[in-house]
Structure formats: structure tokens, C-alpha cells
Amino acid sequence: MGEDAGTGGGRAPWQLWSLPGRVRVLVVGVSLAAVGLLALAARTAPTAQEWVRAGWLAAAALPHLHASHLIERRRRDRVGAPYVDLCSVWIFAGAIVLPLVLELVLVAAIYGHRWALVNRFDAVRPPHRTVFTAATLALAAAAAAAVLHATGVHEHLAGGARPGWTDLAAVVAAAAVQWVVNTGLVGTAIAWTVPVEHPRRLLGSASDNLLEVSQLALGVFAAMALLWWPPAALLMIIPTFALHQCVQLDQLKLAARTDQRTGLLNAIAWHEQAEHALERTRGRIGVLMIDLDWFKRVNDTHGHPVGDDVLAEVATVLTRAVRRGDTVGRYGGEEFAVLLPDVEEAEVRAIAERIRLRIRALRITAPTGEPVPLSATIGAALPPSEPGAGLDEMIRAADEALYAGKKAGRDRVAVAGW
Question: 135: Cβ–Cβ under 8 A, 6 or more apart, which residues?
């Protein structure tokens, strides 16, 4: 899957031994398996023609990786979590056209380059993460190559035969095997290292998987060029670099709409999305303004990192407590906003009360072991009896109800009157 595996972090240069025991076993075991596989593959010497193909592939892959390393640094810094890199184009092409020993050397060269120009400058991504990522890709590529050898496609294509539908099916199967092996190893490391809300998250997002499929498809075309017109493989630098640029552009668009601490929409994006919802529903909306009680005390007593943890936990509560299709955003500071389209008065009250109770039930502990008590006051603007109120009027009404709730003692739901 070409992914920067989240197998731990920290500020020290080598944090392997701080990982949970079974994760250490996985990381070391996968890395040793890749090294052992390389030693076995090295027993068969490549032919002169295979060396030439490997040279052309390296001539295409390394310039692309070098030209895009600044983009990768920015992607890494913005994501701050496991993400799909763009190395699978060259790795899968190698699985199709190269002997295993040269394929494994290619993977090592790619991720050695990645570490030297990207990950070496990141203290929270110690070397074992790059080693583990390279090892998972090596094993995944070896599994894909095994499929191609078992079906006879590797020898068929290497001999210059024209590929048919059977060859295409085998290549697709090999791509699927590469994805499954890599995703399985990376997903296991993530699941054993950090809590995961749902097993589906271990498979990556839909956009991540589409990106990976696109890379595998481009890898097929790169392989075809290497087999029949090697200099044409250099042209693959252009679409792969363009793919890098598009991925970065999508990240920038997302960053412009997202609050960094909570992952929710920021105030501007929430307002825009709420305006669209208001137009669709012709005014039948509810608005909740949610303010954490005494939040300044949390920062003053326990420090801003704990305050950031509180904001992130509350954001999770909000996204789980609302309905599908509701819009949640961080409005500023410790204040959040929720837009409820196509809603009745009773449902607005029920959702607001559910949010209040779940925030109060949060159990957050400071590094000192001291519990951090939480509560929230919520101002609710109900759908107006007669459509016509604009979004700003709804927000103002919810805000007024919020402040009335705070004056009345906090930790309650206050409803605006129309």
C-alpha cells in the first residue's frame, strides 16, 4: 500500500524498544524476513537484460522521488499520521519485470532515498518506521511476483509475447495480493500500537485506496514500457509527479477547511456548509452552540496539551452523538457548532441533551493522574415556526440561549424562543 506505517514515535532517534512487545516482534520479524528473502533471492544472478531493465526503472523512479521529496515532507508534516506514499508505481512495475533480487534492491533504494531526504528530518518518525515500511513493501512485492511466476505471466511477458486477457487477470491478482499483504502488515502494526475506532480504518480511507489503485495501474504501464520500449518508462515521471501535485492540492484544500486540533470543520467552512444546508432544507434547521464550561481552568491547571486532548475528545463525542448528515464544526476556542437539517423541535432537544450528557461522562486524566472534570452548556435554536430566518439569525438565537444557560448555572441545555 506504499504507506508510512504508524509503528510508534517519540522524540528519541530510535524508539523501537519502547513499542509494545508484540509490535516489536512484528517489526523485527518482518524486517528479518525481508533480509532473509533478499539473501535467498541473491543466489540467482540476474541476466544482462534484467540489469538493463532495472537500470531504466531506477532512472525513472529515483528522479521522480528526488523531485517530489519536498512535497512528501509537506504531506508528512500536514498529515501527522500514517499516509499513502507514491512509491508503488515503481515497486509494482519492478514486481512485473524484474527478478526478485533486483526488485528487493529497488525497494531498499527507494526507501533509503526516502529516509535520507524526508524521514531523517522528522524526530517522531524514527528509523525503524522506514525500515518496517520498506520491509512490508518488499514482502508484498515478493508475494505479487510469486503470483506472476506461478501463473507464468512473468516469463510470458519477459519473453516478448503479446499479453492477453489471462495475463491481465494475473496482473490484477498480483496487484491485489500486493495490496492485501502490505495493508495487512501495516494494519496489524497500527492496531497493536494505537486504539482504532473501527476495523475499517485499518484499510485506509476510500481516497487512500483509490490513490493506491491508481499507482498500481500506472505501474502496469511502466512495466509495459520497460518490456518493449524502456526509454518510454522515463515518461512515467510526468504523471506520477502530477499525481503528487494533485494529492498535495487536495491536502491543502482540506487543511483550509479543517480545524487542526479537532479534525472538525473550521468556522468558515462550517458556515459555508451550513448556508448550503439552509438552502436545501428551506429553513427547517436547528442550530446548537456548545461551550465547554470553565475550559480556561483546564489549560491553567493542567496545561495546554491536556486542553488540546479535551478538545479532541469532545470533537469525537460530537461526531458520534449527531445524526448522519449533520454538520459539526469548531466555532472558536472551546466553542463548537452543530447544524441539524430537516429536524423537529423534539429531536433538537434530544440531540442537545445527548451531547451534554456524553461530554459530562468523558473521563480524561491529566499526566499527573488527576481527573479532568468536564461539562458543557448548550444553546439551541429550534426550527422557526415560519421559514424565513437566516443562518445568522439562527446562530444569534443559539448564542443568546447559550449565554442564558451559563447565567443560569451552566451544564444545561437552554433553548431559544422565537
Answer: 30, 31, 33, 34, 35
d(CA 34, CA 140): 10
Residue 85: exposure state from Cβ atoms within 10 A (0-12, 13-18, ≥19):
buried
Could you tell me which residues come within 8 angstroms of residue 121 by beta carbon, excluding any fewer than 6 positions away? Answer: 73
Q: What does the alpha-carbon distance between residue 50 and residue 304 come to, in Å, rounded to a whole number? A: 57
Distance (Å, rounded) from C-alpha 310 to C-alpha 363? 10
Tell whether pTM > 0.90: no
Q: Work out whether strand 364-365 and strand 335-341 pair parallel, antiparallel, or are unpaired.
A: unpaired
Given a cut of 50, is residue 273 above it in pLDDT? yes
Enumerate residues 6+ apart whose C-beta is below 8 A from 348: 286, 288, 340, 380, 382, 383, 415
What span, in angstroms and rounded, lies between the C-alpha atoms of 376 and 410? 7
CA end-to-end span of the chain? 54
Task: Determine the pLDDT at residue 324.
Answer: 82
Cross-strand pairs, 288: 338, 380
Q: Kindly report, residue by residue over 168-216, the tens digit of the pLDDT.
A: 999 999 999 999 998 889 888 877 876 655 566 666 667 677 778 888 8
* 364: alpha, beta or left? (left if phi > 0; alpha if psi -120 to 50): beta
Residues 6+ positions from 136 with CB-CB distance below 8 Å? 5, 30, 181, 182, 185, 186
Nearest Cα residue to 375 out of 400, 392, 355, 351:
355
